Amino acid sequence: MTNVSEKSKLTTYGNIINGKIVQAKDGAVADSIDPSTGEVWAKIPSSKKEDAELVIQAARGAFEGWADLPARTRGDYMRKIGDMIPEYAAELLELETRNNGWVLDEYGYLAEVLKQVWYDAASAATLVGGQGRTVQMGTGDFGFTVRKPYGVVVGILPWNAPLFTFTIKAAYALAAGNTVVIKPAESGAVGSLRYGELISQILPPGVLNVISGSGREIGDYLVSHEEVNKVSLTGSKATAERITKATAHSPKSLIFELGGKSPNIVFEDANIEQAVHGLINGIFTPNSGQICVGGSRMLIQRSIYDEVIGRLKELMTDKEFVKHGNTLDTTNTMGPIANEAQFKSVCRYIDEASKDEYEVVFGGKYGGQEVLPGQPEFADGYWVQPTLVKVADNSTKLAREEIFGPVAVAIPFDTEEEAIQIANDTNFGLAAGVWTQNLGLAHRMIDKLQAGNVWVNTYARVGADLPFSGVKESGYGTDSILDYSQEKACVINIG
Ligand code: NAD
């Protein structure tokens, strides 16, 4: 295992092109900042269009050979990548923590999920990727379909969960026979560059490539390139709009996994203690609310509203329960915001909470000196206190906009109908949580909630065994093998 803390300090990571580590042609690099301290801890390539061209040509050059392999052989490659994960898990998890500020995943849950996705893609390669359907045409014609890959897929990653989003895009796209270019967000690039290096050592050259650079510099070039056939973005609605415009002249198949303003709804018959922990895990710990499915709107039935708020406050102001600090120390429970731009954005929302229409229940402070007083090493880190704000209704700014930080609103409701009305009163539709012991109520909520994912008496349960998508402005398409292959319809006249 590589000790990242010692070895990678100010290491310059490179793009992965055609199986090789390559710096940007003009040698430009950008800083990778540790969000807990604000210090530079590694360097990453600052790629330009000429580098983007190289990476696309590498993927294009490898496509035919990769697509022509039997699906089973591609599956064998996916399994080998899954087998590789445990050996490098400690290193990859540490890089992820340095990148996104989530407290180190002591038990390696993330590594286990990554491994399982690669194994799932291995099975999917043969079960789905290599198979089509037969159709009874009834006209003397025999109809059938074959599944074909799209070609070159560009996967664009957000900074909050680089390794997970890398994996769900690359694994299924590769299993289906596409070749792949991954572009991580700059503030989450180091883990992706190293992960890409490890994966590319297993695959034929050019099948999986990684390029680091700013979205503004190389984003349009990558997505609009005529040699690119599919783009899968996990990111914001603003970027989805830019990609839609950039690809207008050369239409491509698009997957958009976008943001959310998800309701986490507690009914009076719920197991209150279980629900309170579900509310906390949904938006505060362990990722400081930087998760697309964050349960940022807590809808609580009025009869239990004070009790639930009281218990939330008790836990979230308990210094043993909420422990900020060194993100590599697994006894801490909450990390910082992942990068400076997002930190400033979250701070603006916390400032908004001082207006008359809000009542801050707990939190409301930000900055290393405020959140971690007396610990100068964290003074310049992007620290924010978990913050809960009471709002009278769903119309306020804090109840409507995606904050993407540890800031939630609490909204009371009286009836099931009102809960549904408030929950659906948003442009987003990524996820929803429901806490109740009533099976009928749970099913009615599942039926009525406008969300791609609904969890009952649990929250944020995602994995390789279920699809993951949004509705409304939360996007469309899933990073599954079905979405990375297309059916070709064939008919043979059999007389
Ligand atoms: P972002 O949209 O700012 O950036 C996402 C990626 O797009 C980055 O790699 C960026 O460099 C790239 N990009 C920027 N401009 C581009 C352009 N013109 N062309 C191509 N690529 C471009 O999003 P973010 O701030 O990194 O991530 C936070 C957002 O992602 C939130 O809205 C969050 O909800 C969402 N998210 C969604 C999911 C999901 O699965 N639904 C998961 C995680 C995050």
TrEMBL record:
The active site is at E257. Pfam families: Aldedh. Keywords: Oxidoreductase. Residues 25-483 form the Aldehyde dehydrogenase domain. The keyword Transmembrane does not apply. The keyword Oxidoreductase applies. Belongs to the aldehyde dehydrogenase family. This is Aldehyde dehydrogenase (NAD+). The lineage of its organism: Bacteria, Bacillati, Bacillota, Bacilli, Bacillales.
